[in-house]
Amino acid sequence: MIEPLKREVLESYSNVRSGRHQQGILILKNIIERCPWDPALRELRVEAYKAVGDMMNAITDLRVITKLTQDNTNGFQQLASLYYQIGDVEQALSEIRECLKLDPDHKECFQTYKKVKKVNKLNSDAQEHMNNKEYEECVTVARKILREEKEREEVQYLAYDKLCQCSVHTDPPQALNYCQMALNIKEEPRLYCEMGDAHIADEMFDEAVNDYQKALNIDENLQRAKEGLERAQKLKKQASKRDYYKILGVRRNANKKEISKAYRALAQKWHPDHYSGEEKKKAEKMFIDIAAAKEVLTDEEMRAKFDNGEDPLDPEQQQGGPGGQGFNPFQHFHFHHGGFPGGGGFQGGGFKFHFN
């Protein structure tokens, strides 16, 4: 029994050392099943796993090795390195700390610790900003990850993924670039959904439909892609009708403050008292559209409906609009002939609009 085993061990070393890693892994599997407590055999298999890019199995063996041998600083350093390579910076930090617990003066572990700690902090901060919808801050911090890590693609993916998600809300065209960079590293269907959202924000509905379809081609059960596809198709159809964002001249990701500012400027511009004759009729129509746009886009529920391709003020879709009563475009104004001073209204020769 001993001699055949020795021959297999020698054969496994020969295969791994000569670059026949897969063959070496097969032989080592049989040997380790009979000699599970030999760290040297697992170390050889770790070498082979790393050579063929099988980092998860390499990690599994290293985990066993650190338990089989005491004070194995090298094992923990390798674990940290492998976790970092696959983009799990939080676990990499945990492993390198184990190395420093064993030897606080370990030079290589300390160098690794400093870098991993910094990248992990940046990644955590970017995630927290994203969770808090602080998208500009998220973008700023995620870019720092790319400045810190210029080689490891899986770590760069962490940055591109967050830049993709956060830039959808701040700079949709740039988000498309970041999403593509992330996709070049890992074809994650969720990223196609982010691209779809970015294309919707830029009112490129055909492109958005294609993005969500790509996501579904990878994962046909991805609910976000199904909903996104339906939304993009509705918005494409809606584009031929009244577009409240275009009426106010704001982007689809505009906040309430931006919407209200645009509304007030346009309401003043198209105040009917500034016009007469046919121009007055046009101004009244424009003013109704502006008021309708403000009504929808400053109401969270109605805006959500519109963003999903449904016009909350379309009687055909809503059976009379909000509350079934239809839309009163002047409900936010009092009309007074001749106008009167005070308040936040607009005053003209015929009547005054006074904001509630």
UniProtKB/TrEMBL annotation:
**This protein's superkingdom?**
Eukaryota
Q: Which GO terms describe its molecular function?
A: misfolded protein binding; protein-folding chaperone binding
Q: What InterPro entries is this protein classified in?
A: DnaJ_C3_Co-chaperones, DnaJ_domain, J_dom_sf, TPR-like_helical_dom_sf, TPR_rpt
Give the UniProt record's GO annotations in the biological process aspect. Answer: protein folding in endoplasmic reticulum
Q: Which residues form the J domain?
A: 243-310
Q: Which Gene3D superfamilies is this protein grouped with?
A: DnaJ domain, Tetratricopeptide repeat domain
Pfam families in the cross-refs: DnaJ, TPR_8
Question: Which parts of the sequence are annotated with region: Disordered?
Answer: 306-334
- Entry keyword set: Coiled coil, Endoplasmic reticulum, Signal, TPR repeat
Q: Is this entry keyworded tRNA-binding?
A: no
Q: Where are the TPR repeats?
A: 73-106, 189-222
Name of the molecule in the record: J domain-containing protein
The coiled-coil segments of this chain are: 215-242
Instruction: Just give the chief location class.
Output: endoplasmic reticulum
User: What does the record give as the organism's lineage?
Assistant: Eukaryota, Metazoa, Ecdysozoa, Arthropoda, Crustacea
**Protein location:** Endoplasmic reticulum
Where exactly are the transmembrane stretches of this chain? none
PROSITE patterns according to UniProt: DNAJ_2, TPR, TPR_REGION
Answer whether the UniProt record assigns the keyword Nucleus to this protein: no
- Could you name the Gene Ontology cellular component terms for this entry? endoplasmic reticulum
